[in-house]
Automatic annotation (TrEMBL):
GO terms for molecular function: DNA binding; DNA-binding transcription factor activity. Coiled coil: none annotated. This is Glycine cleavage system transcriptional activator. The keyword Membrane does not apply. The lineage of its organism: Bacteria, Pseudomonadati, Pseudomonadota, Alphaproteobacteria, Rhodobacterales. PROSITE patterns: HTH_LYSR (PS50931). Keywords: DNA-binding, Transcription, Transcription regulation. PANTHER family: HTH-TYPE TRANSCRIPTIONAL ACTIVATOR TTDR-RELATED, HTH-TYPE TRANSCRIPTIONAL REGULATOR. Residues 1-61 form the HTH lysR-type domain. The gene is gcvA_4. Belongs to the LysR transcriptional regulatory family.
Length: 294
Protein backbone atom coordinates (compact mmCIF):
# COMPACT_ATOMS: atom_id res chain seq x y z
CA UNK A 1 0.00 0.00 0.00
CA UNK A 2 1.52 3.41 -0.96
CA UNK A 3 1.94 5.93 1.89
CA UNK A 4 -0.92 8.40 2.24
CA UNK A 5 -0.24 11.99 1.19
CA UNK A 6 0.74 14.12 4.20
CA UNK A 7 -1.42 17.06 3.10
CA UNK A 8 -4.43 14.76 2.78
CA UNK A 9 -3.73 13.40 6.26
CA UNK A 10 -3.64 16.94 7.65
CA UNK A 11 -7.01 17.58 6.02
CA UNK A 12 -8.41 14.41 7.62
CA UNK A 13 -7.05 15.45 11.02
CA UNK A 14 -8.76 18.86 10.72
CA UNK A 15 -12.08 17.26 9.74
CA UNK A 16 -11.81 14.85 12.68
CA UNK A 17 -11.08 17.71 15.08
CA UNK A 18 -14.06 19.83 13.96
CA UNK A 19 -16.51 17.02 13.22
CA UNK A 20 -17.73 18.93 10.19
CA UNK A 21 -16.42 19.03 6.62
CA UNK A 22 -17.60 22.61 5.97
CA UNK A 23 -15.94 23.92 9.15
CA UNK A 24 -12.71 22.13 8.24
CA UNK A 25 -12.86 23.58 4.72
CA UNK A 26 -13.15 27.11 6.16
CA UNK A 27 -10.22 26.54 8.53
CA UNK A 28 -8.07 25.13 5.71
CA UNK A 29 -9.22 27.73 3.15
CA UNK A 30 -10.30 24.97 0.80
CA UNK A 31 -13.58 24.19 -0.89
CA UNK A 32 -15.87 21.61 0.68
CA UNK A 33 -15.42 19.46 -2.43
CA UNK A 34 -11.63 19.57 -2.16
CA UNK A 35 -11.78 18.44 1.49
CA UNK A 36 -14.17 15.59 0.65
CA UNK A 37 -11.93 14.51 -2.23
CA UNK A 38 -8.85 14.29 0.02
CA UNK A 39 -10.74 12.20 2.57
CA UNK A 40 -11.93 9.83 -0.15
CA UNK A 41 -8.34 9.62 -1.42
CA UNK A 42 -7.12 8.40 1.98
CA UNK A 43 -10.02 5.96 2.36
CA UNK A 44 -9.26 4.46 -1.05
CA UNK A 45 -5.55 4.17 -0.28
CA UNK A 46 -6.03 2.38 3.04
CA UNK A 47 -9.08 0.43 1.91
CA UNK A 48 -11.51 1.31 4.73
CA UNK A 49 -13.89 4.20 5.57
CA UNK A 50 -12.69 6.71 8.15
CA UNK A 51 -15.82 8.86 8.48
CA UNK A 52 -19.53 8.33 8.88
CA UNK A 53 -21.33 11.18 7.10
CA UNK A 54 -24.50 12.49 8.73
CA UNK A 55 -26.90 15.41 8.35
CA UNK A 56 -25.25 17.32 11.20
CA UNK A 57 -21.64 16.52 10.46
CA UNK A 58 -19.31 13.56 10.48
CA UNK A 59 -18.17 11.05 13.09
CA UNK A 60 -15.15 8.76 13.13
CA UNK A 61 -15.33 5.06 12.42
CA UNK A 62 -13.19 2.80 14.67
CA UNK A 63 -10.51 2.90 11.96
CA UNK A 64 -10.90 6.68 11.77
CA UNK A 65 -10.34 6.99 15.52
CA UNK A 66 -7.14 4.96 15.31
CA UNK A 67 -5.94 6.96 12.32
CA UNK A 68 -6.76 10.28 14.02
CA UNK A 69 -4.89 9.31 17.20
CA UNK A 70 -1.83 8.29 15.19
CA UNK A 71 -2.00 11.43 13.04
CA UNK A 72 -2.30 13.67 16.08
CA UNK A 73 0.85 12.21 17.59
CA UNK A 74 2.74 12.29 14.31
CA UNK A 75 1.78 15.87 13.46
CA UNK A 76 2.74 17.04 16.94
CA UNK A 77 6.22 15.50 16.45
CA UNK A 78 6.56 17.11 13.00
CA UNK A 79 5.38 20.52 14.24
CA UNK A 80 7.75 20.31 17.21
CA UNK A 81 10.71 19.48 14.95
CA UNK A 82 9.86 22.30 12.57
CA UNK A 83 9.58 24.74 15.48
CA UNK A 84 13.03 23.68 16.67
CA UNK A 85 14.51 24.16 13.22
CA UNK A 86 12.86 27.55 12.80
CA UNK A 87 13.79 28.71 16.30
CA UNK A 88 10.15 29.26 17.32
CA UNK A 89 10.69 28.38 20.97
CA UNK A 90 8.96 31.60 22.01
CA UNK A 91 5.64 30.71 20.37
CA UNK A 92 2.82 29.68 22.71
CA UNK A 93 -0.65 28.67 21.49
CA UNK A 94 -3.43 28.81 24.04
CA UNK A 95 -6.54 26.69 23.37
CA UNK A 96 -9.46 28.05 25.40
CA UNK A 97 -13.19 28.67 25.34
CA UNK A 98 -14.53 32.03 24.12
CA UNK A 99 -15.96 33.11 27.49
CA UNK A 100 -12.77 32.19 29.37
CA UNK A 101 -10.89 34.38 26.91
CA UNK A 102 -13.28 37.29 27.32
CA UNK A 103 -13.84 37.15 31.07
CA UNK A 104 -10.62 35.71 32.53
CA UNK A 105 -7.76 36.12 30.08
CA UNK A 106 -8.48 39.58 28.68
CA UNK A 107 -8.44 41.33 32.09
CA UNK A 108 -4.97 39.77 32.64
CA UNK A 109 -3.54 40.27 29.16
CA UNK A 110 -1.42 43.28 30.07
CA UNK A 111 0.00 41.41 33.06
CA UNK A 112 0.80 38.43 30.83
CA UNK A 113 2.57 40.58 28.25
CA UNK A 114 4.68 42.27 30.91
CA UNK A 115 5.66 38.88 32.32
CA UNK A 116 6.51 37.44 28.88
CA UNK A 117 7.53 40.22 26.49
CA UNK A 118 9.49 37.69 24.38
CA UNK A 119 6.56 35.26 23.94
CA UNK A 120 4.46 35.35 20.78
CA UNK A 121 1.05 34.34 22.08
CA UNK A 122 -1.64 32.91 19.79
CA UNK A 123 -5.10 32.01 21.04
CA UNK A 124 -7.34 29.45 19.40
CA UNK A 125 -10.96 29.64 20.52
CA UNK A 126 -12.91 26.40 20.79
CA UNK A 127 -16.58 25.78 21.51
CA UNK A 128 -15.96 22.24 22.70
CA UNK A 129 -13.19 20.23 24.32
CA UNK A 130 -10.36 19.43 21.93
CA UNK A 131 -10.06 15.77 20.97
CA UNK A 132 -6.57 15.91 19.52
CA UNK A 133 -3.18 15.81 21.16
CA UNK A 134 -1.19 18.92 22.02
CA UNK A 135 2.08 19.75 20.32
CA UNK A 136 5.06 21.89 21.21
CA UNK A 137 4.16 25.20 22.81
CA UNK A 138 0.44 24.36 23.11
CA UNK A 139 -1.61 24.73 26.30
CA UNK A 140 -5.29 23.85 26.67
CA UNK A 141 -7.56 25.09 29.49
CA UNK A 142 -11.03 23.57 29.81
CA UNK A 143 -13.69 22.77 32.42
CA UNK A 144 -14.34 19.10 33.08
CA UNK A 145 -15.20 16.61 35.80
CA UNK A 146 -11.78 14.87 35.66
CA UNK A 147 -8.21 15.58 34.50
CA UNK A 148 -7.18 15.20 30.88
CA UNK A 149 -7.06 11.41 30.24
CA UNK A 150 -4.58 11.66 27.35
CA UNK A 151 -1.43 9.79 28.52
CA UNK A 152 0.72 12.04 26.32
CA UNK A 153 -0.35 15.13 28.30
CA UNK A 154 0.57 16.69 31.60
CA UNK A 155 -2.55 17.93 33.38
CA UNK A 156 -3.06 20.20 36.38
CA UNK A 157 -6.20 21.13 38.27
CA UNK A 158 -6.53 24.92 38.38
CA UNK A 159 -9.68 25.52 40.42
CA UNK A 160 -13.05 24.15 41.40
CA UNK A 161 -15.99 25.61 39.49
CA UNK A 162 -17.62 27.58 42.31
CA UNK A 163 -20.86 28.90 40.90
CA UNK A 164 -22.63 32.12 41.87
CA UNK A 165 -25.77 33.94 40.75
CA UNK A 166 -24.98 37.54 39.83
CA UNK A 167 -26.75 40.66 38.62
CA UNK A 168 -26.15 44.37 38.18
CA UNK A 169 -25.97 46.36 41.44
CA UNK A 170 -28.86 48.44 40.04
CA UNK A 171 -31.06 45.44 39.24
CA UNK A 172 -34.28 45.51 41.30
CA UNK A 173 -34.40 42.47 43.54
CA UNK A 174 -35.42 41.47 47.10
CA UNK A 175 -33.07 42.86 49.74
CA UNK A 176 -33.18 39.72 51.89
CA UNK A 177 -31.19 36.47 51.49
CA UNK A 178 -32.66 34.50 48.63
CA UNK A 179 -33.15 30.80 48.02
CA UNK A 180 -33.83 29.04 44.74
CA UNK A 181 -37.58 29.62 45.01
CA UNK A 182 -37.12 33.40 45.08
CA UNK A 183 -34.42 33.36 42.39
CA UNK A 184 -36.69 31.53 39.99
CA UNK A 185 -39.21 34.38 40.19
CA UNK A 186 -36.64 36.81 38.72
CA UNK A 187 -35.69 37.32 35.06
CA UNK A 188 -33.05 34.67 34.34
CA UNK A 189 -30.14 34.81 31.91
CA UNK A 190 -28.87 31.41 30.83
CA UNK A 191 -25.84 30.23 28.85
CA UNK A 192 -25.25 26.95 27.07
CA UNK A 193 -24.70 25.06 30.34
CA UNK A 194 -28.46 25.43 31.09
CA UNK A 195 -27.87 25.80 34.83
CA UNK A 196 -31.17 27.59 35.48
CA UNK A 197 -33.06 24.77 33.74
CA UNK A 198 -31.25 22.24 35.93
CA UNK A 199 -32.05 24.23 39.09
CA UNK A 200 -35.73 24.43 38.15
CA UNK A 201 -35.79 20.69 37.53
CA UNK A 202 -34.06 19.97 40.86
CA UNK A 203 -36.50 22.14 42.85
CA UNK A 204 -39.60 21.20 40.89
CA UNK A 205 -40.47 24.88 40.46
CA UNK A 206 -41.16 26.52 37.11
CA UNK A 207 -39.42 29.86 36.55
CA UNK A 208 -41.81 32.81 36.59
CA UNK A 209 -40.24 34.02 33.32
CA UNK A 210 -38.84 31.98 30.45
CA UNK A 211 -35.03 32.39 30.65
CA UNK A 212 -33.23 34.44 28.04
CA UNK A 213 -30.78 32.00 26.46
CA UNK A 214 -27.30 32.88 25.24
CA UNK A 215 -24.79 30.66 23.50
CA UNK A 216 -21.89 31.84 25.68
CA UNK A 217 -21.39 32.65 29.34
CA UNK A 218 -19.77 35.99 28.49
CA UNK A 219 -22.92 37.13 26.70
CA UNK A 220 -25.18 36.15 29.60
CA UNK A 221 -22.88 38.03 32.01
CA UNK A 222 -22.87 41.11 29.79
CA UNK A 223 -26.67 41.01 29.78
CA UNK A 224 -26.62 40.82 33.59
CA UNK A 225 -24.33 43.86 33.78
CA UNK A 226 -26.82 45.73 31.62
CA UNK A 227 -29.63 45.02 34.08
CA UNK A 228 -31.54 42.40 32.10
CA UNK A 229 -31.66 39.78 34.84
CA UNK A 230 -29.68 37.24 36.87
CA UNK A 231 -26.93 35.04 35.42
CA UNK A 232 -25.12 32.10 36.98
CA UNK A 233 -21.44 31.45 36.26
CA UNK A 234 -18.18 30.14 37.80
CA UNK A 235 -16.43 32.53 40.17
CA UNK A 236 -13.25 32.76 38.08
CA UNK A 237 -15.37 34.17 35.22
CA UNK A 238 -16.92 36.95 37.30
CA UNK A 239 -14.16 38.04 39.69
CA UNK A 240 -12.99 40.98 37.53
CA UNK A 241 -16.55 42.31 37.19
CA UNK A 242 -17.15 41.84 40.94
CA UNK A 243 -14.02 43.86 41.78
CA UNK A 244 -15.12 46.60 39.37
CA UNK A 245 -18.62 46.55 40.96
CA UNK A 246 -20.24 45.80 37.63
CA UNK A 247 -21.81 42.70 39.19
CA UNK A 248 -22.86 41.61 42.67
CA UNK A 249 -23.32 38.07 43.99
CA UNK A 250 -26.79 37.28 45.30
CA UNK A 251 -26.79 33.49 45.69
CA UNK A 252 -24.46 30.47 45.89
CA UNK A 253 -25.58 26.89 45.19
CA UNK A 254 -25.32 24.88 48.43
CA UNK A 255 -23.85 21.84 46.64
CA UNK A 256 -20.48 21.81 44.80
CA UNK A 257 -20.64 21.60 41.02
CA UNK A 258 -18.26 18.57 40.89
CA UNK A 259 -16.52 20.28 37.99
CA UNK A 260 -13.09 21.80 37.81
CA UNK A 261 -10.91 23.83 35.48
CA UNK A 262 -7.92 21.91 34.12
CA UNK A 263 -4.80 22.86 32.19
CA UNK A 264 -2.98 20.46 29.86
CA UNK A 265 0.21 20.48 27.81
CA UNK A 266 2.26 17.80 26.03
CA UNK A 267 4.67 15.78 28.17
CA UNK A 268 7.22 15.50 25.40
CA UNK A 269 7.33 19.25 24.78
CA UNK A 270 8.72 20.37 28.14
CA UNK A 271 12.02 21.19 26.46
CA UNK A 272 10.61 24.52 25.29
CA UNK A 273 12.26 27.23 27.36
CA UNK A 274 9.14 29.31 27.86
CA UNK A 275 6.31 26.79 28.05
CA UNK A 276 6.96 25.81 31.66
CA UNK A 277 7.18 29.47 32.71
CA UNK A 278 3.81 30.18 31.09
CA UNK A 279 2.32 27.10 32.79
CA UNK A 280 3.68 28.40 36.13
CA UNK A 281 2.11 31.80 35.44
CA UNK A 282 -1.34 30.27 35.08
CA UNK A 283 -0.85 28.22 38.24
CA UNK A 284 0.10 31.33 40.21
CA UNK A 285 -2.85 33.29 38.80
CA UNK A 286 -5.10 30.56 40.16
CA UNK A 287 -3.42 30.68 43.58
CA UNK A 288 -1.01 27.78 43.14
CA UNK A 289 2.79 27.75 43.16
CA UNK A 290 5.28 30.62 42.97
CA UNK A 291 6.70 32.74 40.20
CA UNK A 292 9.67 31.06 38.55
CA UNK A 293 12.77 33.22 38.82
CA UNK A 294 14.56 34.11 35.59
Amino acid sequence: MPPANLNALRVFSTVAEHGNIQCAAEVLNLSRGAVSQRIKQIELEIGTPLLVRGARGVSLTPAGKRCHAAMTEALAIIDSALSDVAGHDGWITLHIGPSFMAKWMMPRMERFRKAFPWVSLATEIHNRVMDRGLGRGEIAIWPDTAPDPNPAHQSRHLTELRLAAVCSPDFLRPDWPMGPETLLTLPLLQDGHRRWDRLAEATGQRPAHAPLNFGRSALALDAAMNGHGVAIAPHHMIEADLRAKRLVEIWFPPEPSNEGLYMSWAKEQNGGRHLRRVVDWFLVEFGQGHRRQE
